[in-house]
Specification:
Signal peptide (chain B): 1-16
Radius of gyration of chain A: 21 Å
CATH topology of the domain at 2-94 and 138-195 and 287-337 in chain B: Rossmann fold
Order of helices and strands of chain B: EHEHHHEEHEHEHEEEEEEHEEEH
CATH architecture of the domain at 2-94 and 138-195 and 287-337 in chain B: 3-Layer(aba) Sandwich
Number of strands of chain A: 15
Strand content of chain B: 25-35%
CATH superfamily of chain A: NAD(P)-binding Rossmann-like Domain
Subcellular location (chain B): Cytoplasm, Cytosol; Peroxisome matrix; Presynaptic active zone; Secreted
Number of domains of chain A: 1
Catalytic activity (chain B): D-dopa + O2 + H2O = 3-(3,4-dihydroxyphenyl)pyruvate + H2O2 + NH4(+); D-phenylalanine + O2 + H2O = 3-phenylpyruvate + H2O2 + NH4(+); D-leucine + O2 + H2O = 4-methyl-2-oxopentanoate + H2O2 + NH4(+); D-proline + O2 = 1-pyrroline-2-carboxylate + H2O2
Oligomer: heterodimer
Binding site for D-dopa (chain B): 53, 217
Distance between the termini of chain A: 14 Å
Cofactor (chain B): FAD
Helix content of chain A: 25-40%
Shape of chain A: elongated
Largest sheet of chain A: 9 strands, mixed
Distance between the termini of chain B: 18 Å
Largest interface: A-B, 36 and 39 residues
CATH class of chain A: Alpha Beta
Shape of chain B: globular
Chain lengths: 341, 347
């Protein structure tokens, strides 16, 4: 049978990494990435790209740990290579501080990040409103560089990229055999998933190159993440808010909260405000389906709903999605050979 | 009471400020002037990356260890202040790498979060089997020296761009006390066989993805004679060489190659980093810091010199402790000349 034609819908961190995994695992496929938005206009571009996982309620911890570990290991190798600066992947150390001691003292990812330990009294003195803290070293994927780097690698493998708004996955059935749905928050409309909801995040990107360490409040609302060309200050977690417009009073609030964690930020320049809608779900939808209508068929693999964990889990879920694509390819070959009998 | 400070690097300017702050309120007629042939951004202190870190071997004397600690604590108290950015002061974390286990340094409890490296972290640095991680401070000379200068000017300190050839020259102009912070060239004012240059060369690159300092230690090579990478607020500084007795301030192509190749081996992504500047400077190396009073002449014509030089590659690391020690020595001069009542305990 002819080489399977595979389309990945979505060009954020999940779409591009999934496309890369499919391209690497199945080089014989004719692969294309279709997206309404490419970097710098994706949700991933708003995120800081810090590898600090959230615990998703609907996925077993050991699975989340496996996805995080795969992602961390993959990025760790990039950060240690000559491509690190082009890929935008770098190590960063810092502190997660809590106003009251958290229930679980050791998060599931504590043995995957580097050097995880409780903060000393001397370190906590820098955070007078906080009583407990964790110090560790983790990775950060800066966007646009990371997305651009993935796009470059995809193009080198002959993967085509098209700016195209897909209204309905079925519209692709005549051009493609397999569609991988990495539409993120777009899946709400694209496949009508009512379990998917936005968690709105507003962030500031500021010029403060003397900030070399990250600081994150354990409540997840206030954070300072130093990147290559800017420091990301956050943030908000507004469930069910679909607004993509920056809110000026939220900007002031974020800035104030971050300055109380890191007073030197008062001197920060060139504040850019961005908004992203985290594609949230009780668990990531990673499954395959067969769509048929009349005599026509479309094999669909879903890989969306990563919420706050897009960067933390992307490589692990991309590999699993690629495995599902492999099952689709096998099914195609199966039905193709059966058709010949 | 007229005080002449010779030298406008971190030692001279901080000593001047400390003397003013500690003794100024007590001696209304205190006049300070700074004399130097080089000012920021052309001093040795400007070339240094500005990382607070004493030498790792237990070589320093007890008082030097204390001065380092005092400097760190002074700076740590200011890192959360609104002035920190103007001062060029910020926290930075990073790695010290060794080829075999070494004893912990004297300053392990001074820095924040000192710990040994885990095997996973050592994977980042092939060739090194042991190491430390800690959070320390950066104090960038090209911000800190102007900040000190501004503070001194606000208090009426005068600055003279002048090469001083002798202490006598300053006494003849009316100075009662000279504070000698002339660094590597102190021997020109008074021969000092213990003082010699420790030539360093650095390559400054644009590598804003580097967020940690990385300092290697090769036992045979000596301090600062093996690669180091230090991320500043604007550029990342690659070093290191430490050539004792070499007075050349010209950049050497051979040193450039050695630094570039060894740093790129440590962090392969540096190969893509654009080079912004190259600089050579002379560390004022001495077996110990010379910080002491010297009385020159006798009777009513006698003059005082307070020496404060020979800070090697740890000038920024030790500067404030030394500045306070200078102020204490100055206070005892004032007391002897009965310009002051009993020494206040805060000096």
């Amino acid at each position: 049978m002819a080489a399977p034609k595979v389309a990945v819908v979505g060009a954020g961190v999940v779409g591009l990494s999934t496309a890369l995994c499919v391209a690497d695992a199945f080089p014989a496929c004719a692969l294309a990435v279709l997206a309404e938005r490419f970097t710098p206009s994706t949700t991933s571009d708003v995120a800081a790209g810090m590898l600090i996982p959230h615990t998703a309620p609907g996925t077993p911890i050991h699975v989340q740990k496996q996805w995080f570990k795969e992602t961390f290991t993959y990025l760790f190798a990039i950060s240690n290579s000559a491509e690190a600066s082009e890929a935008g992947v770098h190590l960063v150390s810092g502190w997660q501080v809590f106003k009251s001691t958290p229930g679980e003292e050791l998060p599931f990812w504590s043995d995957i990040v580097l050097g995880f330990r409780t903060m000393s009294e001397a370190e906590l003195q820098k955070f007078p409103q906080h009583r407990y803290g964790q110090a560790f070293t983790t990775l950060k994927c800066d966007c646009p560089p990371y997305l651009l780097w993935m796009e470059k690698r995809l193009k080198a493998k002959g993967v085509q990229m098209y700016t195209r708004k897909v209204e309905n996955l079925w519209e692709l059935h005549s051009e493609y055999n397999i569609v991988v749905n990495c539409a993120g928050i777009g899946a709400h409309q694209l496949v009508g998933d009512q379990q998917l909801f936005p968690v709105r995040g507003q962030v500031l990107k500021v010029h403060a190159p003397w900030v070399k360490n990250f600081v994150r409040d354990g409540d997840g609302l206030t954070y300072i993440y130093p990147g290559i060309s800017s420091v990301t200050l956050g943030g908000t977690r507004e469930k069910e808010s679909w607004s993509l417009s920056p809110d000026p009073s939220t900007t002031k609030d974020i800035f104030g909260r971050c300055c109380s964690l890191e007073p030197s930020l008062q001197a920060a320049q060139e504040v850019k405000v961005q908004v992203g809608l985290r594609p949230s779900r009780a668990n990531v939808r990673l499954q395959r389906e067969v769509w048929s209508q009349g005599g026509a068929k479309l094999l669909v693999v879903h890989n969306y709903g990563h919420g706050s964990g897009g960067f933390s889990m992307h490589r692990g879920t991309a590999k699993e999605a690629a495995q599902l694509v492999g099952e689709c390819i096998a099914a195609l070959q199966d039905s193709s050979s059966r058709a010949k009998l | 009471m007229r005080v002449a400070v010779a030298g406008a690097g971190v030692a001279g300017l901080s000593a001047a400020l400390c003397v003013l702050e500690q003794c100024g309120p007590l001696v209304p007629a205190l006049e300070l002037a700074v004399y130097a042939d080089r000012f920021t951004p052309r001093t040795t202190s400007d070339g240094a990356a500005g990382l607070w870190q004493p030498y790792v071997q237990h070589g320093g004397s007890a008082r030097e260890t204390l001065w380092n600690k005092e400097t760190f604590e002074h700076l740590l108290g200011r890192v959360g202040s609104p002035e920190a950015e103007d001062m060029g002061l910020f926290l930075v974390s990073g790695y010290n790498l060794f080829k075999q286990p070494v004893p912990d340094p004297s300053w392990k409890d001074v820095v924040l979060g000192f710990r040994h490296l885990a095997p996973q972290e050592l994977e980042l640095f092939p060739g090194y089997s042991y190491g430390w991680f800690n959070t320390a401070l950066m104090l960038e000379g090209r911000s800190y020296l102007p900040w000190l200068t501004k503070r001194l000017m606000q208090r009426g300190v005068k600055f003279f761009h002048k090469k001083i050839d002798s202490f006598q020259e300053l006494f003849a102009q009316g100075a009662d006390v000279v504070i000698n912070c002339t660094g590597v060239r102190a021997g020109a004012l008074q021969p000092d066989a213990a003082l010699q240059p420790g030539r360093g060369q650095v390559i400054k690159v644009r590598a804003p993805w580097v967020k940690h300092f990385i300092i290697t230690h090769h036992p045979e090579a000596g301090i600062y004679n093996s690669p180091y990478i230090i991320p500043g607020s604007d550029v990342t500084v690659l070093g290191g060489v430490n050539q004792l007795g070499n007075w050349s301030e010209e950049n050497s192509a051979q040193d450039h190659r050695a630094i570039w190749e060894s740093c790129c081996r440590l962090l392969p992504a540096l190969q893509k980093a654009p080079i912004v500047q190259e600089w050579s400077g002379l560390r004022p190396v001495r077996p110990s810091v010379r910080l002491e009073r010297e009385t020159i002449g006798h009777g009513p014509a006698r003059s005082e010199v307070i020496h404060n030089y020979g800070h090697g590659g740890f000038g920024i690391t030790i500067h404030w402790g030394c500045a306070m020690a200078v102020a204490r020595l100055f206070g005892s001069i004032l007391q002897e000349r009965q310009l002051l009542g009993p020494l206040r305990s805060r000096i």
